[in-house]
Design a protein that fits this description.
- By secondary structure, the protein is an alpha/beta fold.
- The protein is 48% helix and 12% strand.
- It has helices at residues 13-26, 49-55, 61-74, 90-94, 104-115, 127-132, 134-141, 151-165, 175-187, 200-206, 216-227; strands at 5-9, 38-42, 78-80, 120-124, 145-147, 192-195, 213-214.
- Helix 1 packs across helix 11 and helix 5 (104-115) packs across helix 7.
- The protein is globular and about 50 Å long.
- The mean pLDDT is 96.
């Protein structure tokens, strides 16, 4: 029996829409009726995850739990979150429900190991995600080599994520900023890039760059599709 997906979203809304689009485009289907049933709770009231981790900001879990309960009522068979930083709170959320969460980080690490064996990834993410060590743990478990951005490079990432994408500002003026960031990371030894914040695939799709990139949003979509018993597009 085919299963359904619950998206615990709103972190941010554009990233939630991007995940849903990637589920649809990555599902092997010949017509509308062959697609997966997807329930979405895009709750923008969820407190900022990076602020909660780094600055004793408001706890995002109560509003995340509210969305989770809605997805339970809908009958979702799995839960996915289009926010890398939110995975820091996943153990607390998983303890509240019998519905399995699918980890974006674990799906990404498996893809890195399979597609880029022996190569070094640069982890592009929020300060919150980088502070938790979540990606380092997931990548190390798969034997993936990685490097972390420097402090100035983290400032650039936070600018692109918060001041541009989350603020719904045009990305085109930031092309030189993006290219400079990637170039500096290549000089440090990066051979490919993990877009470890769900706003960053939007940056990579908008601003031309050769990458190569691993898109955790796309990897999460594909993992959820397979969990539900459907085939993914090649």
């Amino acid at each position: 029996m085919k299963k359904s997906i619950g998206i615990l979203g709103g972190m941010g809304p554009l990233a939630t829409a991007d995940l849903y689009r990637k589920i649809v485009t990555a599902t092997k289907a010949g017509c509308d009726n062959e697609h997966i049933r997807v329930f979405i709770d895009s709750n923008p009231a969820i407190a900022d995850r990076t602020a909660a981790i780094l600055n004793s900001g408001a706890d995002p879990v109560p509003e995340m739990t509210d969305a989770l309960r809605n997805l339970e009522k809908c009958g979702a068979d799995c839960i996915i979150m289009p926010c890398n930083t939110a995975h820091f709170f996943l153990p607390r959320l998983q303890a509240l429900t019998s519905i399995p969460f699918i980890s974006m980080l674990e799906a990404t690490a498996r893809t890195c190991a399979q597609q880029f064996p022996g190569k070094r990834a640069a982890i592009l993410a929020t300060r919150g995600t980088l502070a938790t060590g979540l990606y380092e743990e997931a990548l190390s478990a798969q034997g993936v080599s990685y490097l972390l951005p420097t402090e100035p490079q983290r400032d650039v990432l936070m600018h692109l994520i918060y001041d541009i994408v989350k603020a719904s500002r045009p990305l085109v003026p930031e092309e030189d900023t993006w290219e400079s960031l990637l170039g500096k990371l290549r000089n440090m030894g990066a051979e490919y890039f993990i877009l470890g914040c769900t706003e960053l695939p939007i940056v990579a799709d908008t601003l031309s760059s050769p990458g190569p990139f691993v898109d955790p949003t796309a990897e999460l979509a594909r993992a959820a599709i397979r969990f539900c018993g459907y085939e993914t597009m090649p």
